[in-house]
User: Fold this.
Amino acid sequence: MTPETDLAAATSSERDRGFMALAQAAAEQARALGEVPVGAVLVRGDEVIATGFNHPIGGHDPSAHAEMAALRAASAVLENYRLPGCELYVTLEPCIMCAGAIMHARIARVVFGASDPKTGACGSVFDAFSIGHLNHHTTVTGGVLADECASSLRSFFAERRRAVRAERDARNAAAPISPDPLTVRS
Assistant:
């Protein structure tokens, strides 16, 4: 690599980290609503066009993923369902539904934080963006602030499990104790 290439790579990764930090802030909005903390930011050049966060539970909408929310908002701002030249930053690897929408929107580049070993469509489970027969090709960069993004998700699910256990324990503590019918004598 030349010094110029090194500088360009360092600048790009600093830029990527900056936009991923904005996506993390959007993810915290989802967390505050009790939703899985995934956030997305859609940019064109250095301008943030739209943000989005997960809200399928509150929105009663299985398609209300962070990426979908950002794509919808950006399409409204730009008054076009095609978003060529735009980049999408998302804290979690997109699923197959979101990958399809990203391709239809003609997003130039997707940058994600944490990999998703259960539903990831950027190489973890399936690589939607490597299908050569499709007419649009999006470049993908994964692992930007991956540890921070994964930690946010892990802490959310750990807290959710703690809350479920506490609720169950409280319910059990409040339930009247009935005698064991095998040890009760008349």
User: Anything to note?
Assistant: DSSP finds five helices and five strands in the chain. The mean pLDDT is 90.
